[in-house]
Specification:
alpha/beta; TIM Barrel; 12 strands; 30% strand; globular
Length: 244
């Protein structure tokens, strides 16, 4: 499916270039009005990133999420600094459909495995941000500042016995560039792990990119900047996805 994405700082929609808080662009949009339009076109799921919470878990935008979930009738997945059981429970209790976990995947693997068992695989999305050298898909964490020497394949194999179902995979060299996604990456991992619902993210700049991603076997495409900057409409994106 097509999943529009919004990165939020103090309830405002922004984009960070390659995860850099000092390289930030703000978008002067009425998010609630925009989402009414998206709903009328057939969008079902929204991806929100709490950049305040990612920097400081005590500064999570809970009040905004309460308002958002009260007014908007989407399935919502939320990421950004999810590190504790308390974080996950608070968001799921608000009505968030899925919680997106990133750095904890590496730093606290046993705890993440426990979360999959407690909350169920449909409530947890593992966000794997990779930098690829000679086809080694190395995971980076902490806002892409820290390399882990652990590969995407190793992590997926570790969590498969716990019922892992949803993985959001980003090639960090592509994120925010609008230069096209890493088609070879998504084709390879979709073939290798047929039971995983992959969400592709990073580099999507044209309708052709959406068509190419659908052909790789990924289940969803996360689209941020290209929709915000009107490279194409959400209606056009949906038509491309459904047509393939």
């Amino acid at each position: 499916m097509i999943i529009p994405a919004f990165d939020l700082i103090n309830s405002l929609v922004v984009r960070l270039y390659q995860g850099n808080y000092s390289n930030k662009k703000e978008y002067n949009i009425n998010l609630f009005s925009l989402l009414e339009e998206y709903k009328s076109k057939g969008i079902q799921t929204i991806h929100l990133v709490d950049l305040d919470g990612a920097q400081d878990s005590n500064n999570r935008q809970i009040e905004f999420f309460q308002k958002f979930l009260f007014y908007e009738r989407f399935s919502v997945q939320v990421g950004g600094g999810i590190r504790t059981t308390k974080d996950i429970s608070a968001l799921l209790n608000l009505g968030v459909k899925r919680v997106v976990v990133s750095s904890s995947i590496i730093e606290n693997k046993k705890r993440v495995k426990k979360w999959l068992n407690i909350y169920g695989p449909d409530s947890i999305v593992l966000a794997l941000d990779v930098n690829i050298t000679n086809n080694k898909k190395e995971i980076y964490v902490n806002g892409w500042q820290k390399k882990t020497n652990i590969t995407l394949e190793e992590i997926i194999e570790y969590f498969l016995p716990s019922g892992l179902k949803h993985v959001l995979c980003t090639d960090i060299s592509k994120d925010g560039t609008l230069l096209g996604p890493n088609i070879a990456l998504y084709k390879e991992i979709s073939r290798s792990f047929k039971n995983i619902n992959f969400q592709a993210s990073g580099g999507i700049g044209s309708l052709k990119d959406i068509i190419s991603l659908k052909q790789t076997g990924v289940k969803s495409v996360i689209i941020g900047r290209s929709l915000l900057e009107k490279k194409f409409t959400v209606e056009e994106a949906l038509k491309c996805w459904q047509k393939e």
